[in-house]
Design goal:
alpha+beta, 25% helix, two-stranded antiparallel sheet, six-stranded mixed β-sheet
């Protein structure tokens, strides 16, 4: 049995990560900003203390490319090193409202990623050429395809404008 190779991630790049939570179509959605091909920072929300107690989290991660739960890394933007701190500060301000009026659905990790992408695009951190909803659908389809095949991939999003 061979050991799966780590995902090949580019430095200074923002990705949507889909992590397998088991079940037929369950994923944890995170944003991930690389500083090197093997080091970066995740941005996500969790509700560990209850269904309506969402908390924003950011963590430095050293080996996400080798984490077998990561089924998809969807490239959505290039972020220069001088903008890393500003991006981190901006993502901390994405609202944790229990309902997204913009996307008309309740808060979850996927909806938070959509709100974050909208804000980052709106404020010029990234330049999306497709809607956030289109990018969500792309990520969902690729994640499900990888899950059904037992594979993992790094893909440049159709919405990537750089």
């Amino acid at each position: 049995m061979s050991i799966p190779r780590p995902l090949s991630l580019e430095p200074n790049t923002l990705y949507i990560l889909l992590l397998d939570l088991g079940g037929s179509c369950l994923f944890e959605w995170k944003l991930y900003l690389t500083s090197t091909p093997t080091t970066g920072r995740t941005f996500h929300i969790t509700n560990e203390t209850g269904p309506i107690a969402w908390q924003y989290k950011t963590e430095v991660v050293y080996s996400i490319a080798s984490d077998m739960r990561v089924g998809l890394a969807l490239k959505i933007g290039v972020i220069g090193p001088v903008m890393h701190t500003a991006l981190r500060t901006r993502l901390a301000l994405v609202p944790l409202a229990l309902y997204s009026g913009r996307f008309r659905e309740g808060l979850c990790c996927r909806v938070w990623v959509k709100e974050a992408l909208f804000a980052l695009d709106d404020e010029g951190y990234i330049g999306l050429v497709q809607s956030v909803v289109d990018i969500e659908q792309e990520a969902r389809q690729l994640g499900m395809l990888n899950k059904s095949r037992g594979t993992r991939s790094v893909v440049r999003s159709i919405g990537f404008g750089g």
